[in-house]
Please model this.
Amino acid sequence: MLILGIDTSCDDTGAAVVRDGHEVLSNVIASQYKAHDRFGGVVPVIAAREHTAKISFILESALEEAGISFTDLDAVAVSHHQGLLLALVVGVSAAKSIALACDIPLIGIHHLEGHIYSNLMGRSKVLKFPFLCLTVAGGHTLLLKVVSHGTYELLGHTRDDAAGEVFDKVARHLGLGHPGGAAIEKLAEKGDPEAYNFPRPLINRTDGEFSFSGLKTAVVAAIDRNPNLNKADLCASFQQAVVDLLVSKTIRMAGEHQLQQITLAGGVALNSPLRTALKHAADDHGYQIFTPCDDLCMDNGAMVAGAAYFLYKERGPNPIGIDTRANAPLGSKGIRYRHDSKYR
Amino acid sequence: MRTLIIDTSGQFTTVLVAKETNLISASILQGRPAEHLHEQVQTSLSSLHIKPSDLGRIAVVVGPGSWTGLNIGVTAAKTFAQVLDIPLSPISTLDALVAGHSKPIWAIMNAGRGQCYYVRCTCFTHDVQPAMAVAPLDTVFNQIRTDTSAVTVLEYGNTFENLLCGDHRYQSAARLLPESLISTMNQSPLLEGDAIKLLKPVYLQPALAERGTIS
Ligand SMILES: [Fe+2]
Model:
């Protein structure tokens, strides 16, 4: 089954072709970083404009790289829930046109399900339900128990900033380039992770809740106090604090819920100190760690096509009128991982 | 040849099917920008018992108008044309708006934040219209009031009714009319290939964040 997956949930325009949920035939991502950089963050209307300008070329490239044409597609999948509303609607509009014009099923995917399923792609024989999933990205930090296809339980989430957001903010405050996470990781290699003793909020609480705003404030204050500080030491100490928080909560929740397999997803899953620390901690407890291949960590269309393959079997196609929502409950249990006021 | 015509520039989403220059189906819905666009397309085609592959051309209003509506409408139209491999005709909101009205005419649209898009057209229908500009309401309305040679003041939308009350030349258009869209479409260029993929909505202003930062 050949599925075209589209993701325009934030500032990357992504389209990909995936065969049977496992084999990635193409995965095209156009970054809009340059269009947003001077504003210090993603501007939704600009994201929408950039998606509209580029979408046709991204679709064309995804098909060309996969060596297929529109008529070869068996279904089209798109992130329609979770992200910037103005940006999501562009991908959804393209996907609906393709579904109608090609007369193929339309499959709406919750963007977070894309991240979760990035781990199952090519791995469905070794990764078994239920497993733990830590999703860490610019927009979310949450721990889920993946019970079965499309069914999740929330074990913890961030009360304030997402971990990826904090990486970006610190990088910007230090005047580092893009992507912020990679720049911090690189500088941190030469730094002392114990040079600064940054706070690790909620680390001693026994639940899976995260908080990063106190850490962010402390790091920004340290930079402001001493403009000539050793950036490598600061990055190493900051990164260590984030890694400690993520690893300790993840291992604790795996133990509490007796989950032997742990998966990591989202852009921050690219951070190698996080991968290493999680692997060490998991080894100590006899847990298995899975991380998606690099191209599936950042926002992309392939994870959407991958998720769609598995979820289509469970849920079937969506009507052409599927809605688009910035925040939507996740999975068959309707998990709410944001403040209630966000779900309108 | 059948043409699918899409207008998502305003508070109404219009989906028309024309056979040559005759209107054979119209679906017009009021609501959030382009919210049910694809359902309208699906219903229109199935009520005519035709498939998307029976279409020979797509036409789309490229703006100016609702930011989100145009992004959805232009993306939908470009993708239809790309997948079906048929030409695409871009329609200017302004051309369709002033079609059939007496000139000289002021065409105005609410730009929000106390501003107004405006243009004064003197030429006849289907000539290329000058681009719209943006200015504070007072500035535009003063110009309109002192312009005694203009015979029509036409707003796309109806937000200025109270502000311009007393001006007998004022008219409001809630939506672009099917006959105007069809006649304007037939004067529009036929885009093919990469020109379709390159098509963007006509945005009259930079995004709010960009104002002041662009030198
Ligand atoms: Fe994401």
